Each structure stands twice: as C-alpha cells, then as structure tokens.
Amino acid sequence: MSAREEILARIGRAVAGAADIEIPRHYLQERPAENIVELFAERVDDYRAIVHVVPAAELAGKIDECLGERRVIVPDGFDRAGGWDDLKTADGVVTTCAVGIAETGTIVLDHGPGQGTRAQTLVPDYHLCVVRADQIVAGVPEALARLDPARPLTWISGPSATSDIELNRVEGVHGPRTLEVIIST
C-alpha cells in the first residue's frame, strides 16, 4: 500500500459512520455599489500603482500623456494607432481589461480584444491599463460572474513585487515594475 492509499484509508476509517452534513455556502454575491469607482481607485493606489480618474472625453489625451515617448505594445483590439511589436525592445504595454474589483483593487485580464497576450502584459517593465467605470464591480463574486473560466485569466493587484528573506521589497520580478491605471468615467 502506498503512503497516499494508507492516508486515505485512515481518513476513511476515521469518518466511517459519521453523518453527512451539508455545508452552507451562502456567500454574499453582491455588495452595495456605492462609490465603487472611488474605492477601486483608492485600493489600486494602495498597491503603489499610479491612478488617474478621467472623464471618457479626456481619455485619449490622458493615454498620450501617460505614455509620452515610450515604445509600447498596443494589442489587437485596443483603439489606438501605432505600437511596438518586439517584446525585447518595448518599454511597456497599454491594455484594456475584463473587469476591475473595487474591494481588492484587482484588475483582471482575460486576454480578449485590447488586452494582449500574457507575455505582452508580463514581460514589459511598464503597463498602462485602461479601466472603464462600467467594468468595475464591488467584489470578487461579481467579477467571477463576468468572467469566462475557459479563458486565460491574469489577476493584477499592483505592480509586480515580492520580498526577499529579509522582507526587502523587490519590484518587477514577475511582471511590470510600474503599473499605471486610467479609470474612464
């Protein structure tokens, strides 16, 4: 008998004869939607991302201002002319998103139109993400309801960061060192 089989047999003997109980899973599916744009902006800022909230009419100008002279990858489906193709020489990427979660300050990419590939969003050192106000939901359950689990999902909570053994923060290890977010209202 393998170790796995032995452990499972022990568990089986331990619970033999125990009554089956139903575990209630009545999670809060929706949260109040008050000020979710402001909450999202605050939470994204807490992660050391750069956050801008602009009216939709000013979005194009704000994108140009944020990008400056950077050579950025512009994924298919992003409504902007021009772009850089080479991951090795691009300074950054500009994308849209699938959903933003106010409670956690998390941006979710499902790599649909305007969101690029995983490599395009994880390799460059700079990521500018445009989030429309109508893409922001209050909590994770609402975000999950909007996402297709068959699509590749990338969950972004701030710039890439980790800590070494002495708890020194190191940025840019697993993705962009700089995350800039424009929330279009």
Structure description:
The protein is globular. The mean pLDDT is 90. It has a single domain (34-184), classed as Rossmann fold. The strands form three sheets. The protein has a five-stranded parallel β-sheet with strand order 1-11-6-3-2, with helices on both faces. The chain is built from five helices and eleven strands, in the order ααβαββββαββαββββ. It is α/β, with parallel strands linked by helices and 185 residues long. The protein starts with a helix and ends with a strand. The longest helix has 13 residues, at 3-15. InterPro entries: FTHF_cligase-like_sf (IPR024185), LUD_dom (IPR003741), NagB/RpiA_transferase-like (IPR037171).
Secondary-structure arrangement, i.e. CATH architecture: 3-Layer(aba) Sandwich
If you compute it from the alpha carbons, what radius of gyration comes out, rounded to the nearest whole angstrom?
A: 21 Å
Distance from first to last alpha carbon: 62 Å
By DSSP (H or I, 4+ residues per run), the number of helices equals: 5
Report the biggest beta sheet as strand number plus sense, adding barrel if it closes: 5 strands, parallel
Major sheet: order of its strands? 1-11-6-3-2
The stretches of 5 or more residues where confidence is low (pLDDT under 50) are none
